[in-house]
Amino acid sequence: MIRVLVADDQDLFRAGFAMILGVQPDIEVVGEAADGEAAVAQAVRLRPDVVLMDVQMPGTDGIDATARICAETDARVLVLTMFDLDDYVYDALRAGASGFLLKDIRRQELADAVRVVARGEALLAPTVTRRLVETLVRRPGAVHRASSRLSGLTERETETLRLMAQGLSNGELAERLVVSEHTVKTHVSRILTKLGLRDRVQAVVFAYESGLVVPGEE
Are 143 and 209 in contact, with CB atoms under 8 Å apart? Predict the structure, then answer.
C-alpha cells in the first residue's frame, strides 16, 4: 500500500486529490496539510511514501517544505503547480522533488504518477519537464557550476546522463545504448551515487547546470 500525504492550501484541491487517490486499491491517503510547516510536521510523524506538495502556500512554502521533507524523511515529493513554467518548480526540483504535476492532471494520471514516484522513479515528462529545465537553467550563473563533478563519470555513464536529460525512459535508453534495461538501471544507479543525487529529476537538472546538455540542443 502506497501511503500519501496531500499538502495544498486550497481546500477544494486538497480534498479533490485526496478523494481521487483514496479510492485507489493500492493507495492510502494518510494525511492532509494546508501549509508547508504542517506538511513537514506530518511527513515526519506519518512517514508517507509520497507527498503531493503545492508550491505556493502561506508561511513555509512548498520549496522550503520539500527541502526539509527530503532531508528529514525518505518520502518522495511530487510538486503541484498551476503553470508548467512556474519558476518555483525549478527550485523545488533542486530542493529534492521527484517530479511535478500540473493541477489540471487527469485523475488516472495522478494515481499513476504517485505509483511511478513510489517505485523510486522520477516523473519526467519529456515535453514539459525538459522545456521547464531548459528555460529556467538560462538564469545567470546556472550553467557550469557543477561541471567539475562530471569527471567522475565514465564515458558510457556520461552518455547515459545526456540521454536522461532528454527525458528518455529506461526502455528508450536501453534501445539507444543497445544494452539491456538491467544494464541501464545499473548505469543510472551509479550516476546518482557518484554525483550524490537523489533521483533522475535531479540528474536532469545537473546535466543542464553542468553544461553537459545545452538548452535547445538535441
Answer: yes
Looking at per-residue confidence, does 4 or 59 come out higher?
Answer: 4
CA 97, CA 177: separation in Å to the nearest integer?
27
Kindly report the number of other CB atoms within 10 A of residue 148's CB atom. 9
State the Cα–Cα distance between residues 10 and 91, nearest whole angstrom: 21
Query: What's the pLDDT tens digit per position in 141-163?
Result: 555 555 678 889 999 999 999 99
Question: Is 81:88 a contact under the CB 8 Å cutoff?
Answer: yes
CB burial class (10 A; 0-12, 13-18, 19+) of residue 10?
middle
With b for 16 or more beta-carbon neighbours within 10 A and e for fewer, the 81-112 pattern comes to beebebebbbbbbbbbbbbbbeeeeeeeebbe
| Alpha-carbon distances, residue 49 vs 6, 72, 73, 102, 105 (angstroms) | 11, 13, 9, 20, 20
The top-scoring range by mean pLDDT among 18-22, 79-83, 130-134 is 18-22
Positions of E strands within the chain: 2-7, 27-33, 50-54, 76-81, 99-102
